[in-house]
Each structure stands twice: as C-alpha cells, then as structure tokens.
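Dataset card, provenance and construction

Sequences and ligand SMILES were collected as paired inputs. For each pair, a complete structure of the chain with the small molecule in place was predicted and serialized as structure tokens. The example below shows a pair involving flavin-adenine dinucleotide. Curators did not alter the output after generation; any descriptive sentences attached to a record were derived from the structure itself.
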Amino acid sequence: MSLYSWGNYPRIENRVIRYTGERGLAETISKNSQMIPYGNGRSYGDSALGDTILHMRNHDLFISFDDQTGLLRCKSGVLLSEILDVFVPRGWFLKITPGTKLITIGGAIASDVHGKNHHVEGCFSECVLSFRIMTADGDIINCSREENADMFHATCGGMGLTGVILEADIYLKKINSKNIVQTTVKTSDLKATFDAFSEYKHMPYSVAWIDCLAKGSKLGRCLLMAGDFADDGDLTPNADRKKDIPFNFPSFSLNNLSVSAFNTLYYAKGKNGVAKVDYDQFFYPLDAINNWNRIYGRNGFTQYQFILPLDASYEGLEKILKKIADSGKGSFLAVLKLYGKANENWLSFPMEGYSLALDFKIEHGLFDLLYKLDRIVLDYGGRIYLTKDVRVPEKTFEQGYPMIDKFRELREQTGMNRKFSSLQSRRVNI
Ligand SMILES: Cc1cc2nc3c(=O)[nH]c(=O)nc-3n(C[C@H](O)[C@H](O)[C@H](O)COP(=O)(O)OP(=O)(O)OC[C@H]3O[C@@H](n4cnc5c(N)ncnc54)[C@H](O)[C@@H]3O)c2cc1C
C-alpha cells in the first residue's frame, strides 16, 4: 500500500520498504537507488515521498537515559509522543517541540523542526548532541558538532537527503509540572499583534492565530497565546480527549464562506486572560482530532509557511495578508510566530523574524496565488519551509537558501545524490 504525506497531495504510488535492521538497510541501499526515508508522514508535502520509501517508524526503541543530565539515546523511529508518555511523569519534557507530537526523532532532525519557543531555544538540533546515520555506501557514521561536523550541519534540516538517521542522543529539559500558565491576548490589527509579540517576548512560548480573511482596519488581528510551564508539581498523565474525523469531507464543504464564518466566530470567542492548561492543550491542540487532514477532502491540502527577516516582517506580512484576504482563499489555520537567530545548519528554515503558516485546500487557482506570495517573500529577503512545501520552484527555493551549493556539493561528493531523492528534491534540484 502506498504512503502519503499529511497534506494527502500528491497521491502517487510508491514501493514501501520497512526497516528490519542495519544489515537489511545496508543491503537495501546497495541494491536500490533514489530512495527517501519516511518517519511518520507528518510533513505536509512531498519531502518524504518518492518511488521507493524507507519506512523507519518501527525502529522505535529507547536505548538509555541519564537522569542527571537529561540525555536520552533512542532509535530514530521513536515518536515525540512516546517520549512524553514515558518522561513527563518523571519530570522531563522536550526542549523543542513542533505543533504535533506525532513525529519521529528522524523527522524532527531531518526537518530541524522548531516550536513556539524558537525565539528563546532555537531549532530541534539545539537539543541534539549527536546521531548515527547510514550513508550512501552503507557505512554508519557518528555525527556531532565536533565529529563529521559537515554531515551534522547538512543533515539537520537536510530533509532525509544525506542518509538514514538510525539513532540520536537528545537532551530533555526538567519540568515541575505538565501544565502551562497561558496568557491570551486579543489584538485588533497587525500593529497591535506585533506590539503584543514584543510585550510577551520574555515568555518562553508564544504563538498567534491570525484571522487571515479580516480586511481593512482589522487586517492582521489575532489571538496571541504566550506561556510557560507551571510550578505546581502536577505530573499526572493527561486525559485522553481524542476525537475522530471518520471520512474525507466533500471538497466543496470547505469554501470561503465557511472559513470566513469560522474565523469570525473563533476570534469573537477568544478572550483576554490567564488560564492553566495541560501541555497537550497548549502545544498540540490539533492532535486531539485524529485525521483532521480529512476535512480538506480527497484532493488534499497544502501548508504555505514562509519567514521574513525581522526588519522586513511588518511590511511584508501586511502585503501578504492583503493579497490573501483579497483572493478570498481563506485558511482556518494561520499561525504567526516570532523567531530568534538562525543556526549554522545549511538548510534550516528559521531566521530572526516572523513566520506565517497557512493551510489551503488544493483547488484551481491556488498555486497562482502562492507563486505571487513567493515573489513578495523573496522581495523581502525571506524563504519557504521545505517540510510544508509541495510546489516551490527551484529558483524560488535557491534564493531563500544561500548554503544550497554547499549542500549540493556534499551530496555529489558522498554519492548521496545517486541514492537518496524525493519528489521535492528532484523539483528543487538538490
Ligand atoms: C499538525 C502539525 C503541526 C506541525 N507543526 C510544526 C511546527 O510547529 N514546527 C515545525 O517545524 N514543523 C511542524 N510540523 C511539521 C513536522 O514537524 C515535520 O514535517 C516533521 O519532519 C515530520 O516528521 P515525521 O517523522 O512525520 O517525518 P516525515 O514526514 O515522514 O518526513 C519528513 C522529512 O524527514 C525525513 N526523515 C524522516 N525520517 C528520517 C530518518 N530516519 N532519517 C533521515 N531522514 C528522515 C524525510 O525524508 C522527510 O524529508 C507540523 C506538522 C503537523 C501535521
């Protein structure tokens, strides 16, 4: 059975090879070409898709844990949720986590994911001490900032194109509660949204939901959520509140009217104030609904996520939000985040500035809009996030990532380009 990504687009047939051990993997690599590792398929686009997929999810053991330093060694198919289930009751949490806990350690490193605390803690690679990776000739090498440093910096954010990550040493952080004290701030326009981010910059976690169909004086209005872990000693497991979307919605059910009505209601319901919520409610609200990607119907959807440098963020975002509101192609999910400094990894997405992520159902005219948005992103010195992308052209991609030639050279010299590729890597020529 073929595997798809979270966006359910494109739906191509592929051959799936499941991980059965290091020797089996080395044989697979020597006998095949043009494979791509696959973790838990939570990337939105085509970065984990290709004709032959190496499915790593069942490679999921914990190996060791040091409760003095918080250093965990585990296999690359372990999910973040599995780490939380075991370690939150012992008073440990992930240093960096994206908006879903249903991703593997391999996927977290390969996309160098980030969370609501990028402005304070940076990307996932900040908690990675080292990892072991199988290269194009079947050898296994250890990579860290000191050992095989080029491979370390190319692999963190390298979208599975530098080999198969087998296991990693990652640091967890100490917590004294599973709860977050969350402050909600409701803003009336983009200026107030930026002011709110500045005011809550000292908080380790912040994120804003933007009403992307609001126009005129309401353009850029948001609900900003900022928070930090409580100190109440509560480390009990969270209640299981999972709900299901049992089938694909018909694609006509999501249209401009329904998105606009949802956005207006959601904004109206939001209230200023402080509340204590558990970590699932704060970090992973979407994980509470199994298969929520089905609301976009059989044609699937994509997420457009870009980042703009700090000094250009306000002007660029204003232009982009206007274009989206005028196009009438709305998005329920429009998430704005503040980012800290870029790291040394060659293809990591973040830079100091603001990033907006928007979900759009795949429909006629969508890509034309996104190509126009790309233009604005590049004009303001920004870039597009590969792990969400499904259509960015080579030239647009290249302009956003100045280290790309170094990455291409490493792939060429190590033979990775002959063994590992995805639909995305072929499109953007890496
Ligand atoms: C609801 C939701 C919220 C999200 N929020 C965020 C967010 O806040 N921040 C953020 O940064 N991302 C976010 N993401 C994206 C997600 O974190 C990344 O796409 C992540 O890489 C997915 O991991 P995965 O294990 O599912 O990997 P996959 O989607 O299967 O693969 C992703 C990439 O990792 C590579 N890969 C996977 N395993 C390995 C391995 N063992 N060795 C080498 N390469 C490997 C693949 O080749 C591919 O390039 C979100 C996704 C969803 C669905």
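Derived descriptions for this record:
The CA atoms of residues 129 and 291 lie 33 Å apart.
The first strand starts at residue 15 and ends at 18.
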